[in-house]
């Protein structure tokens, strides 16, 4: 069977999209892909429609490093309302229970927050994209079906209380992959004895990315200027693994690693993942083997 040609143009790089409120991450991805007329693109971790903020979009060869961004640490700022729990853990759900939170003081919040720092156990919410027997949990939840979810360990690196006014908490959290901020808010509310749900959620950073984001409005304006203007704001592929050490290869080693063979590189790290360069050009990522050689894992095509 003849292979169908993909529509669009070859675009390579990473866009830090400021996902707008009220749409899914996939819809945001499709909008950006259409603006760029890109052949291939993917995002690096869903944000709920209620959430805004950083959604890295990987184009073309950059999709090869998207899995590493999925596994990266994240930072969020969020507002949660004390005294009300909902079916979804956020403002989109139906109210499950209302409790009096008027007696909660800021000192109470400051007292309990340290208990959530470090490795903690979370049970993923039913309204999540996790699968059970091939079905997304949120789809089962919408049908009124609840299934048992396996608790898992996540890491909270720090929690900052920005403000507490009335029944609203403004918090900022730095956390590991797999953290559900809605669940964190609910758990904080339960420890305080009044329950809670999220009313506002914004992702501030993903892995090495903590810089400025591009809004949809800015993208449409750049699109009117042409593809060159759009491409100019893309970050290089290797920026997605900016915190990894580099190894630079000579011509012979670059040839062999391009053939899929592991190579010995003087003064290379002794373990872990590395960014691989052919002289000054980024050509992919690799992993240090037990014998000290650099093994290619995700190689970038020369045209990227």
Give the quaternary arrangement of the chains.
single chain
CATH topology of the largest domain: Pseudouridine synthase
Helix segment tally: 8
- Please, what is the average pLDDT? 90
- Kindly state the percentage of residues in helix: 10-25%
| Parts with pLDDT < 50 across at least 5 consecutive residues | none
The profile of the biggest β sheet is: 8 strands, mixed
**Terminal-residue CA separation:** 28 Å
Question: How many separate structural domains?
Answer: 3
If you compute it from the alpha carbons, what radius of gyration comes out, rounded to the nearest whole angstrom?
22 Å
Total E-strand runs: 16
Q: In CATH's first tier, which class of the largest domain applies?
A: Alpha Beta
CATH superfamily label of the largest domain: Pseudouridine synthase
Question: Could you walk me through the main structural features you see in this protein, from its secondary elements to its overall organization?
Answer:
The strands form four sheets. Strands 1, 2, 3, 4, 7, 10, 11 and 12 form an eight-stranded mixed β-sheet that branches. Strands 13-14-15-16 form a four-stranded mixed β-sheet. A two-stranded antiparallel sheet has the order 5-6. It is 22% helix and 33% strand. It is an alpha+beta fold and 304 residues long. The radius of gyration is 22 Å and the shape is globular. The two termini are 28 Å apart. The longest helix is centred in the first third of the chain and has 12 residues. It has three domains: 91 residues, Pseudouridine synthase; 133 residues, Pseudouridine synthase (2-Layer Sandwich), CATH 3.30.2350; 56 residues, PUA domain (Archaeosine Trna-guanine Transglycosylase, Chain: A, domain 4), CATH 2.30.130. The chain contains eight helices and 16 strands.
């Amino acid at each position: 069977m003849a292979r169908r040609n993909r529509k669009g143009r070859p675009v390579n790089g990473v866009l830090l999209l400021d996902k707008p409120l009220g749409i899914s991450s996939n819809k945001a991805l499709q909008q950006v892909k259409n603006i760029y007329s890109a052949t291939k693109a993917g995002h690096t971790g869903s944000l709920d429609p209620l959430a805004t903020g950083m959604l890295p979009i990987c184009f073309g060869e950059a999709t090869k490093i998207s899995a590493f961004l999925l596994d990266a640490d994240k930072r969020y700022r969020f507002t949660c309302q004390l005294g009300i729990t909902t079916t979804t853990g956020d403002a989109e759900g139906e109210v499950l229970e209302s409790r009096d939170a008027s007696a909660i003081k800021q000192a109470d919040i400051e007292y309990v927050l340290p208990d959530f720092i470090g490795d903690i156990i979370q049970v993923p919410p039913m309204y999540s994209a996790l699968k059970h027997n091939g079905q997304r949990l949120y789809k089962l939840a919408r049908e009124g079906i609840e299934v048992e979810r396996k608790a898992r360990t996540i890491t909270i690196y720090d929690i900052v209380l920005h403000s507490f006014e009335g029944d609203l908490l403004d918090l900022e959290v730095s956390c590991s992959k797999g953290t559900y901020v809605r669940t964190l808010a609910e758990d904080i509310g339960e420890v305080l004895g009044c329950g809670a749900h999220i009313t506002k959620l914004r992702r501030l950073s993903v892995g090495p990315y903590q810089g400025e984001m591009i809004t949809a409005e800015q993208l449409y304006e750049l699109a009117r200027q042409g593809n060159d203007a759009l491409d100019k704001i893309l970050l290089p592929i290797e920026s997605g693994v900016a915190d990894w050490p580099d190894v630079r290869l000579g011509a012979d080693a670059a040839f062999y690693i391009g053939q899929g063979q592991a190579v010995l590189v003087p003064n290379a790290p002794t373990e872990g993942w590395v960014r691989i360069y052919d002289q000054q050009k980024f050509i992919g990522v690799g992993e240090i083997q037990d014998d000290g050689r650099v093994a290619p894992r995700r190689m970038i095509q020369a045209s990227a």
